[in-house]
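Z., the sequence and structure:
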Amino acid sequence: MSPQSIAQTTENDSLQNGVVTPLPPKWQQLLADSTVAPAPVDQEDQDELETRSVLDVTQVRDLKLGWIDEYADLMTELTASPREFHQLAALVTAATAIQRKAFLPMSFGNIYPNIYACIVAMSTVYGKSTAINRPRQVLQAAMMEKLSIPAHGSSEGLIKQLSITPSALMIRDEIGTLFGSDKVRYMKDFKQDLTALYDGYPYSRRLSNDEIRVERPYLNILGATTPARFYSNVSNLDWQDGLLPRWLFVMPEGEPDFDKVTGVFTQHHTDRINRLAHKLMEIEVKKDSPFVLADNAYTLWHTWRTAGLKAAYHQNDENAAAITGRYATYALKFSLILAAVNESWGTITPETMQTAISLADNYKANVYRILKEGDKHRIDGSKLQKVFAVVKTKGFEKGVTTKVILQCTNMSKAEADPCLEKLTEIGAVVKEKSGVGFRYKAAVSELPAKSWN
């Protein structure tokens, strides 16, 4: 792509509110240079422009999200969990409180602002469970605790519950197994049902001798898992089969803050929670409302969506195409949520749409990070054999510690943990508690020859 082409694309995408999405730094430089004198693009620049993933976007850090920021700021002050966890929880909380009352009538169907969301982080040190359980506190203060339903582990239980509570929030402390539920016989339809329920259309299933029908499903999900559990249950095809691109993901952006001190819960904190709840109570009394895209809000969204889909297509990236399409829908969902909780009920302005687009890009960048880190977590036969060999030779009597395994295999903990979990799961290795950690012993003489994909 030449600088002139970049300039033309930028001009087409700018409209009244600036560039739809931040340009990569080299694009910006090429564009600046082209205003002085046209110059050919060297091969290195050309290669970067053509091969940079459409998911590899620069995150916008200074978005103004109103109620979402107020929630995230308060919960970050009260807990040791990262703010990015609380931002995701805030979006899910607001989406839950809307209860289908806000929707966007598009030519391809109504868009409802329900969200499926997952935190992926190491156990204990990041406070995942703390973050995902805070929405209950705000919903309770808003007298909406009825919207919280049990974390059902089967399609039958979930469908029956939704027939009673169609607008609902399901919180799961360990959600990684859900992504691999199709491998478990009694859960084989779970992923299929979640995919169908996401769009909010009437849904029915025959359970035993009865047909259960949910006329107005509006399911929100908030869960957490570890990287090892996530990657062990997810394959590359899962990003293309419909379910995973419907999820928002967040990972910690830095190291755990071990030194953070959380103080006493005061009346000031109660007042702030009540203010958050009061806004949700205002939504409770609203009637079902079709929202309107004001001025050039639709053009902003359509231009951004089309550019992303074209880029994914030309890069022949099926994962990126699926994710880009679904996250374009998330931009619409975000615009509904932001308008609903920030004094703009019924109308989505261009400014709100631009913020929603940037927010969707931020979460798209999270997916790019997850995909990039997948290789080091992915299990294969060579990794399993390497770990098993160390356990077998070094852990003959007392067992071998994780530290020794990492040293001997030259693996990171993120690489070794999924292998140890898989070896324990198949009965090749026995894990025994030892002090604050574990020791591992071989339970078989050799691993079976098979595919571990």
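The first helix runs from residue 3 to 14. The longest strand covers residues 218-225.

Let me know what you think.
H.
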